[in-house]
Amino acid sequence: MAKIGLPAEMENLEELLDFVDKEAARAGFSARRVSEVRLAAEEVLVNIFCYAYPETDGDVSISCFVKEDFFVLEILDSGIPFDIVAAPGPDASSCLSERCVGGLGIHFVKEMTTEARYVRENGENRLTLVFGKSRQE
Amino acid sequence: MKIRHMGQKKEYIVVTVEGRMDAVSAPEFEKFLNGLIDEGALKVIVDFEGLDYISSAGLRSVLITAKKMQSKNGEVLIVSLHHTVKEIFEISGFSTIIPIHASVDAVLETA
For chains A and B, what is the number of CB pairs under 8 angstroms? Predict the structure, then answer.
């Protein structure tokens, strides 16, 4: 299992995502699928950077491993409770407002993953993202 | 991410964007386009031929830019979407909100 942990700040986004890219590529995913994994990770991370630690600073960690044909990311933060899986997606009707873009990131996470699981334990948000080799799996 | 001003073609200013538009680089895109709008640009083609990746942050910047242009009775056209970027525009429904065309030439032919 490979792991990375850094302060949950935008300046660390690239390093965290490059780590995810490298590990997904090592798991044998196509360049396209690696891009999709990176996208799901970015949406989760940016959410954590923006909302998890309103009063203080905090860290985020990403662990990843391969299980059978699936690539699994576990993203952990000790910020305020937030279940991204249960959050509503964007309004189905088309809209030109910035408000509707807010749910988009969550929508992408669900679209790009085979499965997304959230659990709150020991004061931490643990988000498990499971990726099959292609988006349809 | 690299943004390039490719000059004027007919009544359009053409801009190419290459690389990745994510939460870190999206503000740069917004700033660049805002600069064009402030200089009076009313018709801009944004060529995403070399764009490999876009996240919701990137889409937000594209939307904000398009809306700003619309408020001045101008327009931003997006061209040459492919791979993951095309997929993202379709999943988000943005392809129905912002005018998307196959290429710069396709826009100029009908201009």
Answer: 58
